[in-house]
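pasting for ref
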Amino acid sequence: MPISIQDDIKVSQGHSDDFSVTDFLNWPGNGSILDYLRPRVAAKNWYEFYNSWNLRVNLNLLMDSKREVIKSLARRFNLDPNEEAAFDQLWPLVYRAQQYAKDHKDGKIKAAIENGYSILARLALGGGTDQNTLRRVRESDDERFVIFSDHHMTAFDRFPNYFKEFNYELYLDVLRHYANTDYCVVENGDVEECLIWEPNLQDATEYNNLAPGNENGYSFPVDPDASHWDAFLDKRYDQRRDNLQAIFDAHPEYYDLVRNQLISRGKFVRLTGNHDNYMDDGRERTLRNMINSHLGMPVNDVLRIRRGGIPRYLVLHGHQFDSVCVMHSDPKPLAMTMGETFSEFLSWAFQGPDRVWTTTDTNKWTLGRHAFNNYLAKETPRSYSGDPTDNLIRNRLSKIQANPKGFVENLLGHEIAWEYFENTDGFEAFTLEVWTGEEMYKMRHMKETELVDKYVQQYHAQRQQGDSSEPAKFILGHTHEPRHRAEDKTNLGNPNANFYLNSGSAGRFENLIWAIEIDDRQEQVVSWSRQDGKLQKIVWNPVGDELRPGTTTYY
């Protein structure tokens, strides 16, 4: 709920515990009580947020200011008071990585993404590449596929294990269903969560001390070939190996099912993501060997699905086109930038990689009563006049409230999916939902609008003279939002969007698993949930800028 009579109004108005809506039956105002009180509760919550920072001594130190603001929000989610000292030790690593990403976004990082568009077209034309995260290509002529992604399996002792708590048993039943068909199951990256760990002060301090510094602070990006990063990377990969083994141990039914009912029949493909890179060089090779051995088959970066010998679908995770996660760059140090560093060192304090959707959110989709938005992200923040950080620190509330969505997007550096909030006003979305720990921001960090256009342009530029074929359709994950023939708000009816699909997430929506099904040359978005003890599958049809619920089947 965006505002609660018992929890919000009672507290803000100073009523006793037995307060109820009947206390307002004789109130002197007009219209809805909630509409009257909402801005007052929002203002109270804002000042509570502002007064929670520890900025009075170091007001002009940007790094400390940002740390305190982010930490105050983290307390509303997963940050325990006993872990705040560890948070403080890890924060400088994230801040320096953030500065690096900001400084190079329009240079090296942009060039790497542009190269990614070119490689995608090359793969669609049957070619290959030697670039990391894109070079291991699996070919298949199977007729039917189902594609899942973004499970983010964890094995934490203290923090929530969202996939296991939300969808593990459901996913096992869905896999058993497909194991009894001729579908080939594809898991499209970010299956095992190798990056995120449960911090303690000793390890956090050691990471801080091992990160090499210079006169400008920590030297980023992390260079896997530079000897001065060796001790830091040795510790990082010791942790990731421990994470991976713990995940294996915590999910034995899943691995047994995959090996015995899917891999044994040649009906399983595993692709890599940015949280489970499994690259075949450097320290990543050990992780790759662990997963290959545990599955009994090699992982790949790309699945190329052919029809009549011609590539018709490309399946890959999608971080290759994300400005904070790009890993196929040259020189190699770009492999370690903002996305990986934030996920590894601070996302544990929030909800892990991106936000989660609990049943409070997902019921409207699992019950088939609401459409799911189906338009392409642009990533770029909307316009905002002024410096959002300065406005925040100096509490220029009138400036913030004049354009709250622009303020938040520029403060975070990304487009925000505001449609997931119940409050349409951006200020009230923050004060009544984010600050209360009810909903986290869903940041959009991939330029889908640019991706679909530049891929098609590159395809036509690279194909041989006289070749009039259409581009292969490409299927990504990574964003956690399903897409199929998505609308482009900046170019309505853009035909290039017809070549793009997204498999959403299997692990971030409670009792709701998204997937893409392919049957010959027909594809559709589907969802799986459990209703009244039965497996429920809904087919979602693209209509304009929405995915609308269609045929529902129970098993």
